[in-house]
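Hello again,

I reread your note about wanting to compare the complex against the isolated chains. To keep things tidy I'm splitting this into two emails, and this first one only covers the full assembly. Below are the input lines as submitted, including protein chains and any nucleic acid or small-molecule components. They are followed by the predicted structure of everything together. The single-chain runs will come separately.
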Amino acid sequence: MSMRLKELEQFNPITIQCHDNPDADALASGFALYTYFREMGKEVRIVYTGSSRIQKSNLTMMVKELNIPVIYLEDVQKHVNGLLITVDCQYGAGNVTKMSADEVAIIDHHQQEISDVMLTEIRPNLGSCSTLIWQLMKEEKFSFAGKEDLGTALYYGLYSDTNQFAEIHNPLDMDMRDALLCNQSLIRRLRNSNISLRELEIAGIALIKHIYNDDYRYAIIKSAPCDPNLLGLISDFLLQVHEVDTCVVYHEQKEGYKYSVRSCVKECRADELAGFLAADMGSGGGHVEKAGGFIRKDRYENNYPTLHSEGYFSQKMNEYFERCQIIDAVSYEIDISDMKKYVKRKLPRGYVFAKEIMPVGTPATLRTLEGDVDLRIENDMVFVIGIKGEVYVIDGKEFSDSYQYTEESYEMQQYALLADYEPTVKNRIDGNSVALSSFAKVCVSTKDVCVYARELDDMVKVFTIQDRERYRLGNKGDFLVVRCDERHDIYVVKRETFFKAYEEL
Ligand SMILES: [Mn+2]
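Full-complex prediction:
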């Protein structure tokens, strides 16, 4: 599942592509890979495409002061010889111009949206793509000693992508921040050259012209054309307004509408809202609090020939908040009169005794598709792998009470049909990760789990009793499920999982 830089060394020449309108993280990522492959004697270059050259003052300063040899391609290249690596973005996604190439690789830290590229390393839990590339280079024993330009670039990449380090939550990000050789006085200058006077004026005018909805506490701003990074700055500022819980800041380009989304409430994930706004006309995504997207003009004009863009965004925001029911499982009294009774099929699961993979007491990070969980290996701890590749951490008693276990080795591909990410446990002392499934054996639940379920006819967000901070989204066609014996254990099951995991009684 996980890719090493070594695998890319077989190719030559190598082209590294940043996303269109590159930001500091994309540039730093490109620069780091460039340095790596250059030392190896490869013919390598860093490129980007898109409607315009880098304009932002801090980015032009970064490129110049750190000697980043990035090239702007005026015209999209028909075909790229050798290997094309997209950094801080995913080949084929909406924020990067697609160019054909002999071979393609992806290195990114956004939510996975492209899954047909073999050479892929995507880690959405990292604060920056710079961190990921730093880690990949360290894995190959690359030496960062004495490389101040490179260190400063990576540091600034992480700094810019984590809201000035305010949103760092992965320990690896902190490791990099603390380890890099970095020119702090240049960082100070970059930090204070974030926008130009012209952009200050654009931002000022934009802020005056906001649209505010007090029912749903959102704000929308249409800005004059500007560097897309400025949209992020305006939206960061707008979100700090007390009355504003979520916001969208956008502008119109020749090709379409570029927008930035922010949310500071747990009831709305910015990445998901960004995807909703794009609908089927583009793409959107990012992180829980910060996200962005793009709507293609041709598709927009097809779907909404007479609707102006302010109208579209307001209408879509209203629709999002109106349509979406929020269920808090703790307080919600569920009506089961229109629900059918099902029983959970007894599908094989995987189990691993934690102490068999790491010594008791080791601080570790369990990584699954649902996110990272930090824990300490305990004597009595058992990991159970479910059919979606999700992992339950339980104690020995609960395990022996609920499961019958065998010595048969567990085949992830066979049993976790819907898993597209293999769960790992990382030792936080030595940094080594192990795939849980390689240690797992088969167990089967001994309990009959009976549930009521109803097919959803619209979007629902559920805060389960287990996770009070992050909701699970159900869409039309998915199922709302509640345990028969615990009417507050309410959750959402995706349609494709539901029919595999439950059968009607
Ligand atoms: Mn990034």
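For quick reference: The longest strand covers residues 79-87.

B.
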